[in-house]
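Hey L., structure's done. Input below.
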Amino acid sequence: MRYKLRSSKQPPRCTEPRGSSDCAPAAPSDVAGPSSASNLRRRKTLVKTSEVPGQADCLTGHKLTVFSLPQDVVLMVVELLDLESALAFLRCCQWFNSMLSPCDSFWKMLCIKTEFANYSCLETQPASRLVGWAGQELHNTGVRDRTCVGQWRRTWQRGIKMRRNVVAGNFQGWRLFSNSECPVAALSPTLDMNKVKQDLGEFPKLSVNDDLKIDWDDKHLVLFHFFRGEGESCTIRLWDIEDEPRFLYEVDKGIECITDKVSVHNGHVVMVPSWPLEAQAIVMTLDISNNMAESGKYLFPDSASQTALDDNWEHTQLRVVRCQALVVCRAPAWQVVITSLPSCTPLTQIPLDQVSSLYECQQIRSYKSTAVVLFTEKKAEQVCTLVTMDICGSSGSKVRSYYSANNVTDVALYTEPEEIYLMKKNGTVVLYDATAKTETVKISNSLCSPLAGDTSDYQLFVNGKEQICVMQSAPEAPSGRHINVYTYSGSWLYKINLDLYQYGLSRDESVCIYTNAAFLAAADSKRFVLFNVKNGSFVGVMMIPNHLERSKGKDEKDCMFEQTGLGLFIFDENKLIAVHDYERSFPAVLDIYKFW
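Output:
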């Protein structure tokens, strides 16, 4: 009621306290009733009084600005920004810097955006101070890793240091050898290569028919060294690579462990024997914790299938999918055998009745519960068949579809949602729908190669849900060696010319690439050339430590493969594993570099 009285058309009240009796009586003219003019003047006066500084704030509150936003709302805004924008927001003014710098939730967001949150090694700081290959400290020290700041801010600071180590070529390194006397050597600029040679001792040259097979997971690395002479045998060597590489043991095996397909899985080695009748297995497992003792095996029960399998042993392929062994073989017709691991208990046997015996199995690609098998015709490699399977464990796996395609050289597979990419021989990338059995051009060949008649094979690399890389690494390609990088939606981002003298990549070797959240790396046998994965800008070159004299490798005429540079490399930001061309670099097998 009091509010209504003050807003009614009554004479203005005294400005003295309500209990005062000193108010002067109103003029008679005012008592008779205010005129319209006086009412108008009073209204104007009331409007003016509302414009007095501070008066409006008393009635309506403080004026809202961007600096009035609470921290929770600011964090919601930061979550919508990319990394560069979030950092720019942090630096834009002292107000937001003082708000966000001590906020661990802000640094957690940045760690997620940079994928630092995926590296558990960044959660701790090594107690000892280590100096890397480039002569710089490998980890943050002193005030750079203060305990007074939050855990996520320390993770961010360590991640930045890790990336700086990559750019500077500053790492802890080890070289693994297929050698009993010196299976591993720590790499440092002061390492005496002559001493390493003496530590390796006397050992025979790699024979013409000898071969090596390597595989690893997060914990173990296994190396099969096959000796083929009058008889066949192998030596299996095992390293623990979870932290600093540590040689565990070696064991000699007979012809039953000669294999072309090896996979390390959950404390076991899964393999497909090249001599299935001698091994009495189409697939078998070896127990890493039990000196490579047999843990499980499976072979067809009927002798006709066993004989046919032995006759076509070179066609057998292996892939571990959802803790199951998926084996594609001819016995005598093409079929898929799925067993449990590590017991090798048979789960499903599926005949591939729409794949002719005139085809060869080129590769198996899988992601989660989907597997794609690529077959090509022997006499016409451009003719292909794609078999897509749903791997469902004990509930029953099945073939989803068969599809006839042309000129497919590689397959990349991702799910959530499911996406299957086909690399065509001419450089076109196709998105394949395995359910509808349709192809949709994702990246046109005209964008990959400006020259007509370029028949050199292209390589496909899909970096998660971020980029699609199409690489031409053949020196004889008319368009030269290059990498075209596209967004996940297929829009062109940038092109890298691998033939620039600045990079120093040999034209006598093939080039392999790998990408992570920060870097795109291209490598030959002597160096890694680093680029910013977001925009393709040149970052630097990281040299591979020199090898010993290559006197124990095969002669060039005896090598099974042409000069290949690196066999492959896996590049996570905290660790890089590079597999050497073992035929020429023997006994060196691979290098491990740790950047944190």
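The longest helix spans residues 151-168. The longest strand covers residues 220-228.

-- N.
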